[in-house]
Amino acid sequence: MLTKSSTELVRQRNSVLVLSVLRRHGQLAHTEISDFTGLSSATISAITTELEKAQIIEKSEQQAASGRGRPRVLLRQRRDCGYLIVVIISSDAVQYSLVDYAGKLIDRFSEERSHDPSGAGRFVQAVRTGLSRILDRSKISQEKVLLISISSKGLVNSTEPVLVWSPIFGSDQIDFESALRPEWQAKVILDNETLLVAAALGAREEIVKGADFRSLAALSLGHSIGLGIVRRGNETGQEVSAPNFGHMLHMAGGGLCRCGTRGCIEAYAGFYAILRSAFEVPLDTIPAKFVPVAELDKIAARARQGHRTSTFAFRQAGLALGNGLSRMLSLTERMPISITGPGTRYYDLLRQGIEEGLGQSHIVRMEGMPEIRVVPDEPILVFEGHLNRALSVIDQDIVISGVQGGE
Amino acid sequence: MLTKSSTELVRQRNSVLVLSVLRRHGQLAHTEISDFTGLSSATISAITTELEKAQIIEKSEQQAASGRGRPRVLLRQRRDCGYLIVVIISSDAVQYSLVDYAGKLIDRFSEERSHDPSGAGRFVQAVRTGLSRILDRSKISQEKVLLISISSKGLVNSTEPVLVWSPIFGSDQIDFESALRPEWQAKVILDNETLLVAAALGAREEIVKGADFRSLAALSLGHSIGLGIVRRGNETGQEVSAPNFGHMLHMAGGGLCRCGTRGCIEAYAGFYAILRSAFEVPLDTIPAKFVPVAELDKIAARARQGHRTSTFAFRQAGLALGNGLSRMLSLTERMPISITGPGTRYYDLLRQGIEEGLGQSHIVRMEGMPEIRVVPDEPILVFEGHLNRALSVIDQDIVISGVQGGE
DNA sequence: GATTATTTTCTCGACAGTCGAGAAATTTGA
DNA sequence: TCAAATTTCTCGACTGTCGAGAAAATAATC
């Protein structure tokens, strides 16, 4: 359904536009903003004075010497305009980061995670104390925290911050919104981890390719398997999604997965699955809860020396991934694939299987093999994705709610 | 990348909005347009007088008696504002329809299709003469034809009107844009047939559910298998896509498909595949080019009487469809599925397999079985989808290009 | 040191668009 | 014939963008 437009909406969108170029390029002068946005100088004046009055941006005292002429005055976000807390949940720890409005990291710590499975409720409690702790350490008042951005592996509700399914808690849903609302008035968003990786890669790619960028997928290999897809939207920036790829059906009636279903991709390509297959344990064995990476390294070493069942295990994993990717490509357009996560260290062993698995489908035979890149540093990408998404959400909210209220 | 907004853009969008409610509800009075759009009466006045001057809409002489008070004057599209030609390519015929700007069918005929496979070039030639013919018969000048909307089964380029792969011509690409450009200055669009079915169903659904509508998939069963997905977009109406579902990998190294690959869904669920499987022909047999429906009806009749291999054939087909749908659902959100096409007459035989195939995946076990509806009248939906899409494209183009030029 | 050239920022009036209020138009009912 | 009701139209206020040019501030030049 279409909806009506008004002149106020125009100002809102242009204000967000100004903030977004400021975010992308750091501090900028009046003229530069005008160049980047395509808006006239007069409009930039109007918008920036408004944003300055609302205490969202400020004039930087550091003058950029720009040859002769009136010196430029640089504008930048006010760091203390608001704060962001990033919570990254991984299988063995939870990392808390406090970030200011300009995207600068202020404080960070990690907390070990207890491995007891019973504790969805206890886990939420731990997150709440973690959040209090990072706030206390920084002496920032709670109202100044505008957004709490959480990420986890698993399946996430697309509209509300609810963890629908996760490798650790299974179908024990966690609703972060209602869990944090009593204490925090900040907005809470939750994203799948690999979605954030894809978002970060997409943002990088768009800087390089500009308007030529179309789409991209990120595949994360580890104990579990994640996939994120980012597509260029019409005008609303990029669209990202995190399908339930690890638990897509690879083979009906196949190996038993941690989720309880048979034949998921993860049941062939997850770390525990590779272990199981290398030791020729029956495929209906209940998977190990946790596999040390050292264990897999040993199998990989043997595979590299030509050991048959070890090689076979990685090959099976590759095939499952390749078949799955081909199915994903059948449902989307052709796009490059970036492989990331701890599993990238075995890419040499997985590669042949992946390519063969891809090649078994009509779409790949017709359009050719998609471009595959290996990008090992996943944690950096996750954090970068958090910042990209969270800060642009803050920009949006701040403009919609805060501009006229600032003075 | 975000892009700048201006007040002119606001007028453009609101004009398109006015045209779209006019299209949805037929002729409307000033006040009603105001109610439907949420725009103020003054704005409606401004926009409608502009559109009337540009000869896009007109006052209807038929006065709607509305009790006491000043009588309403109804506004409606001018039928002769422009015309649309709809070309529906199916496996045995090509249907041409001439439609006026108000969506009324003016003329229609079908032409048999020669089954010779060599003729991508000859086929394009046939389409060109078909288009000339429908224009000649109606005595409408060529410039008045604003859009030619074509549909076919197969894989379509998402940005240009290029048929990338089709059941009949294989990888012999057909670029309708360059084929028709010398004669026609009308815009040319090409969509996958099942995409249009999905679009039509989505539009119907949105009328019923309004803002509650989220997404929906249409599955077309026949000689080949098609899938269309429609999702509610942010504010830009609905987003539709037509994945290459029929040739998604069902089972690595499986039955030989018409496309030359092994193991496609179509190689299990297409009419030719059901035939092959019912007669226990080896799965690597080159598929029949064309299967009369009567032939399949016979198999279905036997299956309904309990004949084993016939039942098995339909069950295998259902499993392939169910597995494929579960994979699709793993990559999207949960959505209802409408099954359409000639294959719906065998739905009683397919159903169990489809449900079992769906149930083998994690996503369905977790979220439950998606709602499945059977909607047999596919041709009507295809045409309805054509009109929905084509006329809204025309509205958009007409507002962008034509409004100030009208006077 | 005064002047000129150059560059950036700011300001003003014109123009486009939406909205609310109320005037004008037109029919029904008393 | 007049009042009530309803729709359409019009006017002034407000918001927004833009182009042009004024104002500001520095570097180069004489």
TrEMBL record, chains A, B:
Pfam (any one): ROK
GO molecular function, one term: DNA-binding transcription factor activity
Matching InterPro entries: ATPase_NBD, HTH_MarR-typ, ROK, WH-like_DNA-bd_sf, WH_DNA-bd_sf
Superkingdom: Bacteria
Domain HTH marR-type: 14-61
PANTHER family per record: GLUCOKINASE (PTHR18964:SF173), ROK (REPRESSOR, ORF, KINASE) FAMILY (PTHR18964)
Protein name: Transcriptional regulator
Species of the source: Rhizobium chutanense
Upper classification of the organism: Bacteria, Pseudomonadati, Pseudomonadota, Alphaproteobacteria, Hyphomicrobiales
